[in-house]
UniProtKB/TrEMBL annotation:
Keyword Transport appears in the UniProt entry: no
A Pfam cross-reference name: Pollen_Ole_e_1
InterPro entries for the chain: Pollen_Ole_e1_allergen
Protein family per UniProt: Belongs to the Ole e I family.
Protein name, entry field: Alg9-like mannosyltransferase family isoform 1
PANTHER family, alphabetized: POLLEN PROTEIN OLE E I-LIKE PROTEIN, PROTEIN DOWNSTREAM OF FLC-RELATED
Keywords: Disulfide bond
Molecular functions per Gene Ontology: glycosyltransferase activity
Length: 116
């Protein structure tokens, strides 16, 4: 979902309909107008997978600048990656994710001696 809020009073200046990703996780939201005075964020709403439906703080939403006055000549904008966290990390991913700073996974790591 894409929401834009006015920076001054916090009122919504744009709200998209709920969007679905394709099988590869891609989505497209077409927006008309200029939202220079708004903060616009794409955010997760719901995952169809019961084993992977917990939004993380890092991947829960992404800011998108929707104005032609930002020096970008293209009308196409890209949001940073969004994603849900699996309820249980894959064994081969636990150490890497912990090293990357996803401390919320520390509790899932358990007593593995080789993982900091």
């Amino acid at each position: 979902m894409l929401d834009c809020k006015n920076r001054t009073d916090g009122s919504y200046t744009y709200r998209s309909l709920l969007m679905l990703t394709d099988n590869n996780g891609y989505y497209k939201i077409e927006v008309e107008g200029d939202y220079e005075e708004s903060d616009c964020d794409v955010s997760l709403v719901k995952s169809p997978r019961a084993d992977c439906n917990e939004p993380t703080e890092v991947w829960r939403k992404a800011r998108v600048v929707l104005t032609t006055d930002d020096g970008v000549s293209s009308e196409i904008r890209f949001a940073n990656n969004l994603g849900f966290k699996m309820k249980e990390a894959l064994p081969e991913c636990k150490q890497v994710l912990t090293e990357m700073g996803y401390y919320e996974l520390r509790d899932e790591v358990g007593d593995d001696k080789d993982i900091p």
